[in-house]
# Entry
Amino acid sequence: MTTPTPLVLVVEDDAPIRRFLRAALAESGFRVEEATSATDAMAGLVNHPPDLVLLDLGLPDRDGLDLLRELRGWSRVPVIVLSARDREHDKVVALDAGADDYLSKPFGIAELRARMRVALRHAAATGAEGAATTFAVGDLVVDLAARRVIIAGREPHLTPHEFKLLSLLVKNAGKVLTHRQLLHEVWGPEYGDENHYVRVYMAQLRRKIEADPARPRYIRTEPGVGYRLVDQ
Amino acid sequence: MDPGRPDPDALLRGLQAEAAQEARGRLKVFFGACAGVGKTYAMLEAARIRRNAGVDVVVGWVETHGRAETEALLEGLDRLQPRSLSYRGVELAELDLDGALERRPALLLVDELAHTNAPGSRHAKRWQDVLELLAAGIDVYTTLNVQHVESLNDVVAQITGITVHEMVPDRVLEQADAVELVDLPPDELLQRLREGRVYVPEQAAEAVERFFRRGNLIALRELALRHTAVGVDAQMQRYRQRHAIAKPWPAVPRFLVLVAPSPYAARLVRAARRLAGLSGAEWIALHVETELDRRLPDSDRAQLERTLQLAERLGGEAVTVQGEDVVGEALAYARSRNVTGIVVGNPPVRSFRRRTSSVVDRLLAEAGGLDVHVLHSQPEAPAAALRPVPRLARWWPATIWTVAVIAACTGVAKLLHGRFADANLMMVYLVGVMLVATRLPRRQAVLASLLAVGAFDFFFVPPFLTFAVAETQYLFTFLVMLAAALVISGMAARVRQQVEAGRSRERRTAALLALVRDLSEASGEAAMARAAVRRTGETLDAGAVLMAANPTGGLEVLAVHGQVDLDPNELSVARWVIDHGQPAGRWTETLPGATVLHMPLQGAAGPVGVLGVDLTAAPSGDQVHLLEALATQTALAIERARLEASAREAEVQVGAERLRNAVLSAVSHDLRTPLAAIAGAASSLLDPELGDATRRELAGTVVDESARLNRLIGNILQVTRLESGATVVEKEWQPIEEAAGAALTRADELLGERPVAVELPADLPLVQVDGLLLEQVFFNLLENAAKYTAPDTPVMVRAWTSPGWVEVEVADRGPGLPAGEEGHVFDKFVRLSAGGQGVGLGLTVCRGIIAAHGGTIWAENRPGGGVAFRFRLPWETPPPGPAAELEEKGALA
# Structure
């Protein structure tokens, strides 16, 4: 489904950032469309459906979140939200509203490329049924079908919830998952404010698969947002 | 700007003016309320006295209006011939200015300062002539009516309805070396007017009639009196300024308590301590040792010593100076130490009373800019009410009493009759008369005298039981008896009046003291206003309201006692009172239609507000005095409160200014440094000749410096948010480990090669924190460690529990903190002396965040080198975990 040169729609009103993204993304083999407002963006999304959207939340004419919600009504195109570091709440809202990932401004191009790659890969996997059931990074191997976890040759015993948490992270490897997303998936949608369930289980899980749970190698904490399983 | 300190420029101006003054002639103004009060007469009288003293006095211009007694005074005085001017065919006479300058008398009399000169004269106005004469070194006596003073012109017009066009600028009057008020009560003036002894221009007879109404005259007289008083005040101020009289600087409160060898002194010292404590003031206990004190018995001296020691124990400064003039010494010392308030006691003991109260009186009179706090050593005195003391003052009961007393005397005399001489019987009656005179009004005493004589005649003078008198010598006895009775009753009545006057004075003093005490205990304008209206209202048994003038010129009601109706009309009366500094409203002569009596609150520097009293009856003279005194005290207290408030505000502003400067310098340095590196590196990158390695290094610089800039901006934003209260702390239950881990991951590059030891026990409880903020605390502490330690020294992160707390430590093995700086590292923009880069905002952020979580953070140097930053977060029982997994946990364990 991915075209050889994926089309990226950059929705950003700040010219220097657009300039930097245009140069860097072209260099990395992307085609770039630009939009400086939500109206522009909507036109672009309809007229030239992109393979990925980089969406700045602070747009001059309309709230970026609104645009995202509207877009999610009819499109599953991966969206990466760009936002300042001190707007964690916006990020969580955007992720819960269907954004695939986020990047805190300022960000480096390497980080951006990694996020884009993950987002495109997940979009492709969702399109093609029967995604890979095994995942391996570093010393960690997870076989979802066999419900097996191997870390540095050992096979720790995981409780059902721990395994469910881990498998969610594996299915979204490289992507951030919010506390709420994890809570709903593992405990059920009737849970809303029990984020500490997730935290308690995540801590237990880390103790089983991380060499130093305080300096995690695999499961990274995104403060104020959620968790991310590193995929390389 | 501080009004208390002599302004150097003003001083210089004063000295220059003073030097000019030496050569200048002296001006004396005979100032009156209106024509006919006798200004010219007074001037001529004064001039004659000078002439008789040998001074060369010349009459330059005097209007006698043909009055004989004025003409008589001119006899024998040198007179300058007036200058004749012809204007449109009319011959006009004017003061001959050139003639006067040529004649150069020592003293020249020039009547009617406000006079407008005839066209063709050198100056348009006579006061200009006078200024020239003064400049030439000639002393001038002149006369002026209040309606001609420029600043009062419109007020006079309001009062009289007549606009006066001849005006003298206020500055001319202010230059006068002396202003003598020529005062004549309105009734006498009207009498003189009726007798034709006041000159009135014929053409304006009707206007004159309107002008010379009694109400107008009273108002004008008051205006003149007030203006003279203000002038005296201004003179006093100039004097103080010129002579740099150390006026206390009111911004820093400092109290002085005057202690004497008295058993009350210790209580006084404690009271002063409380008073000083209220305003955070320094205080000094001063004893002025007089010759009398030196001769005191040892026990008294020991008591004094103990009092002074007590003062020192309570944080005051104990000082003894020697001198005979207690008040003078105390004030001199107070001024030398810039004291703002003096505290004295007013002990109730008789023997002390005379001496102390005279001290209090003198202090009050001489204290100048100092507040005098008079503290009672008595137990709380009930607020004195101004209601009349109940006594037998009514007509009928009083007469019955009088008759009864004389009847009783008759009874006693009857018992004595026959055994003692008649003269002794008379004595019995005199005692009765005296008794009546001391208790009842004067007319009762007269009645008693008459009754006594009558009863004596009826019962004891033969023939008995008739008023007939057999022997004429008894008539003489009656006369003597009546005279003696009347004299005695008169004296007794006077004594009683004095006692009553004393009592009412005492009531006034008590009410004032109560107010002063309340005011000194109140802090802030509003509290003082409340105290003032309460005391005023309770004392006068009336509703009271205090309105303050705010800086924008509006009036705001600060406090109300009881019921006071304040419609816009009342407010405009209050406005008038503030503008004019005079009472107005009900029971006054100004705007009497108002429902409330408005008293101005005049502070030392100007009006501060209005005290309105809703009196149901016209106030007695006593009540008016009391009201004035209450208003004065309140005004001074409120003014002091305002000064204190503005001093505090100034202090806050200075603090804010300092911080702003720190921010600016920090921003200019700390934001520009990484920017310079970025700009330099980026511009170098444009050079096509660069090798790949250099290119990478430069790009790395750009990336690192950008990150540093980003962190700094993040901290600045966070500090701002924390301080403005805009930080939203979203607490959730979570393990410490998570925030520490996230921070360690983020700080990975900064920490570089430093070995990081993390000791977080697995059984650490969950804490209720904002994970994002806690991560920032960890990150900032790690960044701080990376900033101040060598690249290979270890960093340690530990946590443990103590009762009620989770304790966390981030420690390094760097150079440690300089001794004494442990407490300051969390302050804004503090850079450790050893430190290299960046403002110390990171730690400020840490402190703010930890404080927002109800915890504390501190730094200590570690044994063996390095610094440990420790913080503790409150720990409570966490909520239950997910229930379904509890068994599994058990199974796992």
Remarks:
- The interface with chain A takes residues 703, 706-707, 710, 714, 717-718, 730, 732-735, 737-742, 744-745, 756, 758, 760, 762, 766, 770-772, 775, 797, 878-879, 881-882, 884-885, 888-889, 892 of chain B (CB under 8 Å).
- Chain B has a mean pLDDT of 79.
